[in-house]
Design goal:
Blueprint lengths: L5 H8 L5 H12 L1 H6 L2 H8 L3 H10 L5 H14 L3 H5 L6 H20 L4 H13 L2 E6 L4 H11 L6 E4 L2 H10 L4 E7 L5 H12 L3 E6 L4 H5 L2 E4 L13 H22 L3 H11 L7
Parallel strand pairs: 1-2, 1-3, 3-4, 4-5
Helix pairs in contact: 2-4, 4-5, 8-14, 9-14, 10-14, 11-12
Length: 283
């Protein structure tokens, strides 16, 4: 491995892993902090593989045993730099930090590419397509993302609303029924109010898509959970553009899937929307 951390090495080897090894890798990456504390039996049960398979997986990554792997994993977590702190340095001039920020954001998108499962995206798109109404909730730093999602999704012929006030969110969730699909944005998935609102959504028999931290309390309440990329940064302190770009890209992917699912019948609807702003710009 050289200077490469076990997490970096794991990412590099993902494409060459066997089906069983890939299941183990996904189980670890879904909650790295928890994986450090797991026993062999715990991880085997989570990944749905045999105990000996865990040992073989560790040897594939160059570790002597699962305890050795956990030591390396703990070191990776302890030294994991944030994208912003690793991307730029004091004294960087404009040309350098422009290049570094763009490179960091490109790296983040490559990182998330390996964590978006096509089947999960397809399931989310089907829920949206079957909905008679789409409700989008975000709080704090997620509020602007919720508004952006509403701006994209309302164009596809399904009434769509975005709410950033938690009292309105509670009332909208309580008034919903099985014909509604909710998209909840929460980087950490641990905001108490958002979790409570998710419970209200479920009690209303509506469908719930959460774009949030894998394995979080919010993700466990969702019918479909998609990673927010929150593991790249401590978003409780600062929400960098890196994570925003990841989530906005996920929104764009869902919007693209919904547009394709709607097919040709969407063309006239989109044309009416475009024509509605004709004449509003100076020649």
């Amino acid at each position: 491995m050289g200077d490469m951390s076990i997490l970096d090495h794991l990412q590099k080897e993902m494409s060459s892993l066997s089906k069983a090894e890939l299941s183990i890798a996904k189980a670890i990456l879904s909650d790295v902090d928890a994986a450090v504390q797991m026993t062999t039996a715990d991880l085997a049960k989570l990944a749905k593989v045999s105990d000996p398979m865990i040992s073989r997986f560790c040897r594939t990554l160059g570790c002597k045993s699962f305890p050795d792997f956990k030591v390396q994993l703990a070191k990776s977590v302890a030294t994991l730099p944030s994208f912003i702190s690793s991307a730029v340095s004091p004294g960087d001039d404009a040309a350098l930090y422009i290049e570094k920020r763009i490179s960091a954001n490109q790296s983040a998108l490559e990182y998330i590419r390996g964590r978006l499962e096509p089947q999960v995206i397809e399931t989310a798109v089907k829920l949206l397509q079957k909905s008679k109404r789409i409700e989008i909730f975000g709080m704090g730093a997620s509020a602007a993302i919720a508004q952006d999602a509403q701006d994209k999704l309302f164009r596809f012929g399904i009434p769509t609303g975005a709410y950033v006030d938690h009292l309105m969110q509670r009332m909208v969730a309580a008034a919903a029924n099985e014909d509604s699909t909710f998209i909840l944005f929460s980087f950490t998935g641990r905001t108490k109010e958002m979790i409570k609102i998710a419970h209200i959504v479920r009690e209303s028999n509506a469908k719930l898509i959460a774009i949030t931290h894998p394995g979080s309390p919010l993700s466990k309440l969702a019918h479909v959970s998609i990673t927010s990329g929150d593991e790249l940064e401590d978003t409780t302190i600062y929400v960098p553009m890196t994570v925003r770009i990841i989530v906005l890209t996920i929104v764009d992917i869902l919007a693209t899937g919904l547009a394709l699912a709607q097919g040709n019948r969407l063309d006239k609807h989109l044309k009416r929307i475009t024509n509605s702003v004709d004449g509003t710009k100076i020649e």
